[in-house]
TrEMBL record:
Keywords per UniProt: ATP-binding, Membrane, Nucleotide-binding, Transmembrane, Transmembrane helix, Transport
PANTHER family registered for this protein in UniProt: ABC TRANSPORTER G FAMILY MEMBER 11
Domain ABC transporter residues, every copy: 27-275
Residue ranges of the TM segments: 364-386, 398-421, 441-467, 474-498, 504-527, 601-621
GO MF term (any one): ABC-type transporter activity
Species of origin: Coniosporium apollinis (strain CBS 100218)
Main location: membrane
Cellular compartments annotated: Membrane
Membrane-topology annotation of the record: Multi-pass membrane protein
PROSITE patterns: ABC_TRANSPORTER_1, ABC_TRANSPORTER_2
Cellular component terms (Gene Ontology): membrane
InterPro entries named among the record's database cross-references: AAA+_ATPase (IPR003593), ABC2_TM (IPR013525), ABC_transporter-like_ATP-bd (IPR003439), ABC_transporter-like_CS (IPR017871), ABCG_dom (IPR043926), P-loop_NTPase (IPR027417), Plant_ABCG (IPR052215)
UniProt protein name: ABC transporter domain-containing protein
Amino acid sequence: MDYISVPDVEKSGGDYAHLTNTTIQGFSWEGVSVTMEDRVTKLPKTILSDISGGLKAGELLAIMGPSGSGKTTLLDVLAHRGTTGKATVKKSLYVNGSQTSLGDFRRISSYVEQEDALTGSLTVKETLYFAAKLSLPSTVSKIERTQRIEALLAAFGLQSQANTLIGTPIRKGISGGQKRRVSVASQLITSPKILFLDEPTSGLDSAASFEVISFVRSIAKQHGILIIASIHQPSTSTFALFDKLLLLSSGRIAYNGTIADVQPYFDSLGYSMPLYMNPAEYVIDLVNIDFARDTERAHLQLEKIQSSWSKSPNATTIVHEIGGETAPRETTPTVVAEEYGSANKLLLPFTLIHRSFIKSYRDVVAYGIRVAMYMGLAIMMGTVWLRLDTDQKNIQSFINAIFFGGAFMSFMAVAYIPSFLEDRSLYVKERANGLYGPTAFMIANFIIGLPYLFIISLLFSSITYFLSNFRPTATAFFTWVMYLFLDLIAAESLVILISSLAPIFVVALAATAFANGLWMSVMGFMVEPKTLNVFYRYVFHYIDYQAYVFQGMMVNEFAERTYDCGKDCQCMYVSDLADQCKVDGKAVLAVYGYRQDRNGLWVGILLAIVLGYRLLGWLVLHLRRT
């Protein structure tokens, strides 16, 4: 089968691409079995049973089977990835006939997820650049890194799209097939010798699927890379691009051999393939019992196919080949772990900050929409509480404005959930590939948000503060900005914690809204702290960051301001200035029980709450890998 020709990497900077595999001659596995507890019956359930196989340098292996056959589980086991849920895994994996450690295996392999782990606001070239920065050791020079990127762009036919955005929901980018090629190319930046592809054609039409597998095949053949892909019912032309097929059904092998021998083998079992039928479609239908009308007959047929394979000479040959490869030798396999390094862990946060910075100013969903939303809120607030004068009848209006400004700015942090979930999704995939962990991710996430949150606080305050006629001094204004800034940092930290615990948009949104409703209820505005229910006061009030923001803003407004009692001189608050027909703002603070000398304490508590949220978020990310 002919495949799409692509530019020869060796003629496009191949001397620097380091794609060619000269160390890994073969990868094999023996007796792979996975059992898991059934969630309903609580009984052991077999996912995979005694799976053996292998491939050699330059070969493409397709793992196929109906839904639930164990394709993804097998791919994860072969790639040294953890399986979902509590599972018992038995496996023997060999590289060049010898078992390798997890660290060494990850240095010589890469895994391409089913869903593209790409940042839509980056260009194709930038995506490869950051893949290189996150994965290549510092010993690789900047010139060499650039040459690798250029070679991969040429090898995958992406040179004309190098400066095109990947694409976001708002801004159109490259096509689905090109995205998949970028995903594969970004994993090849480290020159892996074994490449795992999870459903590389998922969501693509037949033409795009053929295009992607053609490019992958071209790279494998030119450079001796071993490629294992789980794939669901490819077209005839795409199926023919693979060298080998491992067909699964109900966790057992139905066929394991070359693509060329598929039809003769099933013909020999009495299952002749009809003319002009897609062989991939035929063999999957043959072993699929989910939709069989005669269930008993379908089970008998599947049992016959599986037992025929296990007793076939081909199955015996595979076991013997694995045994021969793993027999003791005079020399050790040529797997030089020292050839492969990893990026400097101390520099990883800076790389992530750089990438996040590009995303943040290009992707309006990240902060642009939030800035516009906050500005609209500022104009609304400033015009509702417009130019309040210092008459005692406006004291409650000032208090209401302080509550609204702090509480609703905090509440609107829910707008950050979609952006964080996108970042988290990329983090999960890159962590699974061993690029970085939760520490680097949380540090970068925290730092990149600070300037934007400060800008939002400053812009919001510049509109609201003077429109509403809060205490008109520079010190008071910047104190207000400080508390609002800390308020937004704490609110965003809470969003990150909840979204890490429940990484589903609707759930995270509901949980964050509930938490903000709770904080607003116990912060001290709805019910004064000294009269608040004992349970809510001691369990929630003292850990409510909104309460400290409210206290700080109240003291900032009322501690050094006086208000007129009106023409009749009937003062609403008792203070030392009553004989002057004025209300001392300190009397308002006394009603709430707020002291004036605790700004430093409140700021310290707010910083501690932020740190607590971030550490809990880090812990959740550390414990959760999906």
